Hints:
alpha/beta; CATH 2.40.50.140; about 45% helix
Amino acid sequence: MDKNTFFITTPIYYPSGNWHIGHCYTTVVCDAIARFNRMLKKDVFFLTGTDEHGQKIEKKAQEKGLTPIEFINPLVDGLKDIWKELDVSYDKFIRTTDDYHVKGVQRIFKQLYDKGEIYKSEYEGWYCTPCESFWTESQLKDGKCPDCGRPVQKGKEESYFFRLSKYADRILKLYEDNPEFLQPKSRVNEMVNNFIKPGLQDLCVSRTTIKWGIPVTFDEKHTVYVWVDALTNYITALGYGSDDDSLYQKYWPANLQMVGKEIVRFHTIIWPAILMALDIPVPNRVYGHGWLLIGGDKLSKSKGENIKTEITDPKELVDRYGCDALRYFLLREIPFGNDGVYTNESLLKRINGDLSNALGNLVSRTTAMINQYFGGVLPNPTGYTDLDNEVIAIANGVLPLVKKNIDAIDVPTALGEIFKLIERANKYIDETEPWKLGKDPAMKDRLSTVMYVLAECIRIATILLKPFITKAPDKILSFFSIDGSLIKDFDTVKFGELKGGTAVIKAEPVFPRIDINKEIQEIEKMMTARHKEAQKAEKERAKAEAKVEEKVEEKPEISIDEFFKTELRVALVKACEKVEKSNKLLKLTLDVGDEERTVASGLANYYKPEELIGKKVILVYNLKPAKLCGVVSQGMVLCAEKDGKVVIVTPEQDMPAGAVVC
Ligand code: MSP
């Protein structure tokens, strides 16, 4: 039975805080599809949210001296603000730290364990901390994470495993029997050839070393693997397994789960396998869209430096050009499923070309002429010519075409169909030459029909645009005395609904034309100034850093008692990466026996991060923590230095992490 419900989901976002226009892509696309389905009178449930557990967050919070939740809360608020600015009409925002989700995940994990789908074993393999992914030796690319190319760390620990391997055949059959399940089609080959055919292995689904996660109820030293925690949001949000699962009963399975291409693997292999293990239906459709690549960072002519010349902050873009412009660009620019490039120029060209020239002009020309020739009152049509009938047929045919393309998840083509009508109407003005008709009193009737046809084209195109852009349509409809906020469906999208005699106001520009060259110059000037400021701040930071180093090098004479105040310990380098804001510092994650420490050390010029991983070092254990370039450094690693050569000091024989140096 074709249910009248429509459940659509975005992935839940990592609370990174550095949101750029690319992050808005999935959600704006889902919002347009959700709004479109609401206008088709479907009972829509649109879910989005945040993915808040895992080592990455734990570490970032620690660096800032905050608890994870203190660190996350403002970031989640920031994301919600962006969705507000972009008029994203989600029905529910789930946070994986929400109590009901935590309980839901715990219940699901126990359910899988009780069914024998999860078992306890020992994990040995490679872990990529930034991606929170485990990899086998054969999956590594040049010894590095195949997803992000960063170094991985060897790990061995007691873990629970999900019997993913046993679902390989069922997943292949799912792809075969339901070609709709994974789209676009090219992604099916990717999954089959890169992941399923080489052999699915059971998935490690718990960790004992990550504290910031959902505890396994029956074995509390384990926390649930972040991806299992995250994926199940799609059903815990509906109350699956809780006392009230009415939303789950009503909306599951999801009609559409939209995800970026890099996370298709999780959504079309691991996720359906979990659902199969739980004996519940898989989503109808998962769509893996392409990326919006941020392009165009140009060389500054004056200094030959690489500077960021693109504005990518969604809030700044909305402030500058409006919510409609940004939404329209995201929905229209990239052939759906492919990657596309964002530049300021491409955004400005879209605004000028489609919104200002095509749509804006049509509205201002038509409303100006109705005011000029008919005193601002819409005339009744007086009989249609073949030309009129051709345009009317296009106007009446747009809705089915838009619907067909939205059903096929081809949003840019759906929008393109609406703009075909807008462009056709503009051409109709050129063909009918109303300015000539207006001069001839005998042509008044003909002019009436032309004005009526134009007004109806505008009304129909504008109502159809409502799911895609959210501000301008109501404004445009108001010029025709229509309260757009009352239009909640497409019932009136039929030529001839507008009554002659309706008051028509002369439109103010809805999308003022932008002088692209001037605007780009202005942006470049602004971004260069920002770059200079950032450079200045970086210099000051480097100076402060140098001072800290100088201090370290000062060697006042001390007594033996003073020396013994220093506690030195052996530590194992578990992870190591460059400190983003510094050229000199490496951030080391150290195992010091029964605890983990983060230390920023000026080793970047002497060691590559991966060379240090696995090494034993000597840590000044009781050094007062200091913040270096945003990293709270909890100690200092001992090195030897001579003539610019720097090496770390290590125990002469292997000693366990935590051993005291005396
Ligand atoms: N937390 C995971 C998803 C878990 S879902 C159970 C995650 N989060 S994310 O914040 O990294 O990404 C959220 C969405 O933004 C993804 O769909 C991702 O593909 C999308 N995008 C992030 N940058 C993007 C572009 N530059 N272009 C298009 N989409 C991009 O993944």
